[in-house]
## 1
Amino acid sequence: MAKRIFERFKKLNKKKKIQLVTAAVLTMALLVALPLYAWFTHTRSIAMTTQINAPTQLYITAGNKESVANLEMGNIDVESGTYKDITYTLTVTLVDSSGNEIGDGDFDKYSVIFDGVTKRFSADSKSISYQDRVLSTGGFSYDDFILNFDKSQLTSSNVFMKLEAVPTDPSDLPTLSAIIGVSYVKPYSASWTGQFTDNTPQPSDLDGFNYRLSGSGEGTVTLTWNTNYVDISPWFKNTYGLTILKDSSGIATATLKVNSAEKNQYDIQFYRTNGINSAEQWSDGNHTDITVTGTGFVSMSFTQSTATEN
């Protein structure tokens, strides 16, 4: 095959030979150039994306570190790949909930700490400013400002601090602002209760009983029952791995770890261990327990887990 192509090539005149060779060279050049161009374009795109996604940022955060706003694009020169420092002025002002400067109050009970130095507000100075603060490039740069409020604000919440960060270089970046206050939130209290769900006039109408644990929060439920009258369902005992302790008088006890985030209700069956006693009655309108001459069948108590910080 190659020999025939070569013989036909020899028969061509000089002009045709030049045209054929030129076309072949251009074809090879395109086959090499196109992948190279695609690789170059892709690499440049990655480089530009990396520059855009990694600027020094200026933002105001609250105590939970949630950004109120941030500045990203103004300090990047994508073409040259250089970054600019951000110079800004932070002003903290005592205001009401609408952002208006407050007229009177115990101003000296409010202060701002920066770099270990405390500045207090006063009747003559309801604003505190920090000039020419610089966020530098080359890493994550930040300034920490500690805002101190009077403890009365935990209940009244009528004095706030307005923060304004004004970029001066570059000056075309937007101003960041936030209004921050404090308030007291009551500690969360978990609660679990137990009651019979059987809806009959008297317990003596039933051969067995349905008991429900329900509630919110995390902790430990302690179940207590009198085996002279009832005993717990073996299915429930085995399903939840209960360890049952029983004293000489027939009182049984077991503990159950509960967490409403996973399960907020448990239905437990109790069966009779002796015959029906005509003196049985509900302990109250909520069917919290069954009693016979003052002796209860089932009771429960709940101990909340000690709160931990993450």
## 2
Amino acid sequence: MNREKLMNIFVVFVVVALVVSLIMNFQLISKLGDVENQLNSVTNWQHRLKSDLDDQRVHIDHVLDDIREQQSWISPIKMDVNPKDLEDGKAEATFEWQVKELQKDSEVVFHYTYGDNEDYTSVPVKETQQGMFQVDVPFEVNVEPEWFVHITATRNSQETSKKQMEEQSKKEMEENSLKYYVSVSYGDLVKSSEVHTEHLGYLGTNTYGTFQTNLMLEDKTFSVILANQHADHSTYEIEKVYLLKYEDGSLLGKEELKTDEQYDRRDPMIHSFQVNQIKQYEEMRLVIQVVYNNGKTFEKEIYQS
């Protein structure tokens, strides 16, 4: 009887303990849920605060730009190029600006140079109306696609080559740029505007568009994805895309990049090509070759180890 009574007491104790445990767990879960809600609330508040600060910073930047423009003695210099003049690679850029509080008999001069040349050419300007000036500057541009190359590497040696290619791309961009500024002289006083840099490479894309090349280097293989942003109103189409493989200056062979039909269907203005799992080798040099239906062929080096 005593044993049975003890068993009953033990069962009651276990049941009570379980009930108490369940209550405590429920309370703990509720508290954890409250803490999680509070954390989410704090996180949302931080995101809202960051967004508000970003908006305020943008607004302040706009206000400061307006103040600087109002206080500046010269307005922003506007550049305009007629795309139809670019078909043969030769065109004129028209620059217009305003000089504020211009003194009588002041001399206004436009200065420009191409690429990394530090010697500026100075040309007289035409005053179209009081304080408003204009000048036409002839220039030449390569009528060809503009290339952007991105390399993903997994080894240090590949990273070195990647940096070299990035430096080469930067140098090519600088060589295809126009730098210019305006000076105003009155007596012994000479004022000069800031030097502006205009990248001209994009002007050639009105015919052949742009190419984004992604080269993914793995331990023993590599893959290439090429995306072409088709130029508006252009009738020229890509016929073939090849990857030319060189070693020590000798052509080893070429791989044809296949069209990614699924990608093309998403956006008819973008054509995508790819080639995957190509074996790497020593002294590797890779060149993309694009053939158009008008007989034009363009090449771009995308990697050199």
